[in-house]
Amino acid sequence: MSLNNTDRRIRRTKQMIRDALTELMEDVGFDAITVRDLTEKADINRGTFYLHYKDKFDLLEQCEREVLDELAQVQGHVEGLQLENFYEHFNRGEPLPFIVKLFEYLKENGAFMRVILGPKGDPLFQVKLKEMLAEHLLKHMVKKARIEMAVPFDYFKAYVISAHLGVIQEWLFSGMKESPKEIAMTAFKLTFLGPRRAAGLISDEQNEKTSP
Amino acid sequence: MSLNNTDRRIRRTKQMIRDALTELMEDVGFDAITVRDLTEKADINRGTFYLHYKDKFDLLEQCEREVLDELAQVQGHVEGLQLENFYEHFNRGEPLPFIVKLFEYLKENGAFMRVILGPKGDPLFQVKLKEMLAEHLLKHMVKKARIEMAVPFDYFKAYVISAHLGVIQEWLFSGMKESPKEIAMTAFKLTFLGPRRAAGLISDEQNEKTSP
DNA sequence: TTCATTATTGAACAGACTGTTGATTAGTTG
DNA sequence: CAACTAATCAACAGTCTGTTCAATAATGAA
Q: Nearest CA to CA, how far is B204 from chain A (Å)?
């Protein structure tokens, strides 16, 4: 069976290539990378690359898939930790466990995540990550029936999910100073209270008229 | 002077190339495009391409810069239309004029904007667009002094700006069904009321406790 | 219209990268 | 140790790049 990943040589080679990919993407961006660059930086024969990957796009795709799979697994580990609803979590001052786990994972894989979600990254990965976020976030938020004068649901969804991605990016690129729990709580407040209340631009009591 | 863009041949050639770029990006993505592809689709000599652009990246950059410059000009045309503040606009049921103009411009250049902001697009352009959005959006929102237990400003900023980009993308990719004014109002509501209130997931009166 | 200017063309060039092959060497598992 | 198989090295044709040159065509100004 050649499908087994048990051979130390294979693991080593793949790791070298992936590390090289991360480094090179940081430096010059994915576009400018050649298979030659990758194998030179990884210090392996160029032919060896093609033993494992079809081309550089295949390499990127495999790396991305791995990240997404691992993120999906994370979700499995927090099923038990969820309270009944969104609201209850907030009132205890606790962020959603899933989001905390998400930020913990991002921190572990900081180097790759920074590159792939950065200005030289892959917009397709952003789309995939947003799909995953949507799946796990929205089920906590949409328990109650909807009322009057509502914004279309798809735009609510796009708004919230994109906003969360924005927080993730800001966190990654500003050096991940806050703990996963803190930053998860920040994201939570922004959505739960709305950005203006969360940022303290209006107080809780001082209700602006919302008539029209 | 060869810097003049008055020569009809130059204008024609550049336009052919740019159209080819948009079409090809839609089909195969920027990565997979060669200068050969571009010039064949544009039906011009390959050497001619290099008379105007350094390489395909230079082409993309020039196209992006042009869009951003035009968007910046749009801002100039609405200076007079702004009310004193954010709050007043909302209470009249009117979105910010700048955002309306933004969506109008996006609609005019729909084809290119869809590609560049899509899964095969350019993440660097997203960053630049967000910078522009930040500049024009935030000055309307941050009039009042900030209060207690606030989320860090940078995260508020990242949240709101990213969220707006999300609405833009959702609108572009779902066929731009709403009018620029409608969709601008949708984005406005989501930020002004907060996403949950805007989507009707909680009512205005029914204030959830926000104690912790 | 004429004329000087200049954008475009077509062909050719070396250089680089790709993806594949075959024979050989080296490392791994049991 | 022995069988297996991953990694290496060299070489291949094919494609794309970026540049150059002389020849041609289109343009704007007088």
A: 8
Give the separation between CA B72 and CA B70, rounded to whole angstroms: 5
Report whether B200 contacts A144 (CB < 8 A).
Answer: no
Cβ of A44 near strand D (under 7 Å)? The reply is yes
Q: Which of B61, B24, B122 is nearest to A122 (CA)?
A: B122
Q: Are residues B135 and B176 in the same domain?
A: yes
Q: Does residue A4 reach within 7 angstroms of strand C, measured from its CB?
A: no
Report the residue from A150, A164, A189 with minimal CB separation from B199. A150
Residue A43 contacts B, CB cutoff 8 Å: no
A137-152 pLDDT, tens digit per residue, is 888 777 666 766 689 9
Tokens 């997979």 appear where? B32
Phi, psi (rounded to 5 degrees) for A109: -100, 35
Pair B26, B69 in one domain = no
Residues A156, A73, single domain; the answer is: yes
Residue carrying structure tokens 């209060």: B147
Number of domains observed in the structure of chain B: 2
Are residues B151 and B101 part of one domain? Answer: yes
Each residue of B44-79: pLDDT tens digit?
999 999 999 999 999 999 999 999 999 998 887 877
CA angle B90–B206–A99, rounded 5-degree value: 85
Q: Which residues from A are below 8 Å from B190, CB to CB?
A: 151, 155-156, 159
Amino acid at A85: N
Q: Which amino acid is at A28?
A: V
